[in-house]
Design brief:
The structure is a homodimer. Chain A is an alpha+beta fold. Helices cover 46% and strands 18% of the residues of chain A. Chain A is built from twelve helices and ten strands. In chain A, the strands form three sheets. In chain A, strands 7-3-10-9-8 form a five-stranded antiparallel β-sheet. In chain A, a hairpin with a 4-residue loop joins strand 5 and strand 6. At the A-B interface, helix 6, strand 4, strand 5, strand 6 and helix 9 of A face helix 6, strand 4, strand 5, strand 6 and helix 9 of B. The first copy, chain A, binds a DNA duplex through helix 3.
Chain lengths: 333, 333
DNA sequence: CACTAGCAATGTCAAGTTATGAGTGCTAAT
DNA sequence: ATTAGCACTCATAACTTGACATTGCTAGTG
């Protein structure tokens, strides 16, 4: 479909635009291809007609379209090795055995956001993937207790509970034992339904005054559902990119970062490093998201890099690939 | 110092500017004061010379200076009662007894941010004010445990710990018991030093292989130090204000919201509702922060509203006052 | 047939121009 | 003490201009 030179021109334009953020004109490519600018222009025209390039206005140079970036990522870019400098910073983290996996993940993504100037996000594992390991109920004073849930991934959730009436500590204790006996091993997102259908019918047999306690716990344990650890690296880095040069663009992306459905839009289910460009992200048309699920057996979640569509794909893909591998290696020890 | 009409003119200008965000000209005040625009201008000139008013350029109307807002807040504004509508929304929260104090605080500040379109912040109590109530150590697998700290205010912190070598569960258990015996009742910020000077010298008597455990716990418990619960309401609300109409202003305030010393800049030590305008905030020259410490005996922290200097002071002050009172009433039950 | 030289056409951008309107400061009169 | 009147200043928006970059097209060339 595309001639060799056309592919090569597309590649050059994408890479030049990634570097400079300015539309690329035909003249600037003459030397590299040893043809006249008119020839380049002819090829550019074809590339534009096929949807790989765009113009900002009739007499501007060309910039890659989303289709163009996609073609570049899928067919043209050449994997570069991670630079020695970058490698050094990351190796330090993964060779430090006293860091927990979570700490290593957070630190490495912070480094990526630092060296790339993009924004990095880590989403902890979804509640459906966490099995309840222990429920702890700790009394604070007459009316208040703290409920703590610990999951098999080491994730901890807590919620303070206010009991309308003073309840005997022993009853609280019994409830706690019952919950542990019945709920350990349950995926976090099934806790509410098991509370309702398995605990509720029998709790009266064990615990006096059970209604107060049951209601309080039901509300507390249900509220964990959509809680999710989010860790940001370089949250405002993306604002440094020249594409965010209007007030509206900046406000818009910041609002999206703070919005409630950000988690669901960013979460990745695929096991490899994937690239989503512009509309493909379903998050924001102006950005590219490179992301992957990591899974160490004990622990899983999503790693994501958010940057402009004009992203340094070769570099970011390799960095993320490298980190994913090292996380999974470390996690399997 | 200031004549009655001059005070009244200042009040009008502040209130008009709060409402419209546009400089106020002399003509627009003629009707209200039944004098000519020239007379108003003469007074404006005096107010400007005394530092209460400013001009954006030589032929613009006047806007209040920081000193002008300060004078308005201290001397001119008249406390308005909270509107019935606002009151209704807030009462619902404080009359719901099954909400914990923390939930009530969060919900009420979210409502304030909603109805005012400013940004609300809640800072949980500082670690120095939290006494350790319990340390829980929960094993996940051979190499990993979760350490959980519970404080008397119901605040929970947790940290996963990776042990380089496999350690006998019994030893972990003993360490946990020792930590509880020695540390319960300690303010959170004194935990590290007590670990070092009281636990370290004796832990060897109780626990085999204590070095691995001690080091891991030291690192984990020290990392809690500056952790602090921050809860935002309407974090991006402030961007809706017309004063944030350049890219730089938006980037600047967002960066400040994300910065590490945000907590220390916002924390309030005074027990009443206080107003900090512009430079007085020591946080950002373009904003006003209205804030107060709340203290229920069991629980304390800071409530803050961040908005433009052109803030609806009468309303915000009363809302915050109302919430503070209700929090403390509820907390003392 | 692939390539090229040349050129008119079209757009951005920055700088300069103009007209309009809002609002001030000052002065002389009441 | 207050006012009417006027010259003055400045922001803003609309328009103009010239410099520049780049394109699409056409007529040629090897």
């Amino acid at each position: 479909m595309l001639g060799d030179r056309q592919k090569s021109i597309l590649k050059s334009i994408v890479e030049e635009y990634i570097k400079t953020a300015r539309p690329v004109g035909s003249k600037s490519l003459c030397k590299r291809f040893k043809v006249s600018s008119a020839t380049i222009r002819n090829d550019m025209l074809i590339l534009e007609q096929m949807g790989y390039l765009e113009k900002q206005h009739i007499s501007s140079g060309r910039i890659p379209s989303e289709k163009g970036y996609r073609y570049y990522v899928d067919n043209l870019m050449e994997p570069k090795k991670i630079s020695g400098e970058d490698m050094l910073k990351l190796e330090k983290i993964f060779q430090n055995n006293s860091l927990t996996l979570n700490d290593a993940i957070e630190k490495s993504l912070e480094i990526i956001s630092d060296i790339t100037n993009y924004t990095a996000v880590i989403l902890g594992s979804a509640s459906r993937d966490n099995l309840l390991t222990k429920v702890e109920i700790i009394p604070l004073n007459d009316n208040n207790v703290v409920a703590i849930l610990i999951t098999d991934k080491g994730h901890v959730e807590n919620k303070q509970i206010s009991l309308n009436e003073t309840v005997d500590t022993k009853e609280v204790q019994k409830t706690s034992e019952l919950l542990n006996k019945m709920l350990v091993g349950t995926p976090l997102d099934e806790v509410p339904s098991r509370l309702e259908f398995e605990i509720k019918p029998i709790i009266g047999n064990y615990v006096k005054n059970y209604e107060v306690l049951y209601n309080a716990f039901y509300e507390a344990l249900s509220s964990f559902q959509d809680d999710r650890v989010i860790h940001w690296g370089g949250k405002t880095n993306i604002l440094k990119q020249p594409e965010f040069n209007t007030v509206d663009d900046v406000k818009n992306i910041i609002s999206k970062f703070e919005s409630k459905d950000m988690v669901s839009k960013i979460e990745e289910t695929e096991d490899e490093v994937k690239v989503y460009i512009g509309k493909e992200t379903e998050f924001d048309d102006n950005v590219t998201v490179v992301k992957t699920k990591y899974n160490t057996g004990k622990n899983e979640g999503t790693l994501a890099i958010i940057g402009p569509k004009r992203m340094d794909y070769e570099r970011v893909l390799n960095l993320l690939e490298y980190i994913k591998e090292n996380i999974e290696k470390k996690g399997n020890l």
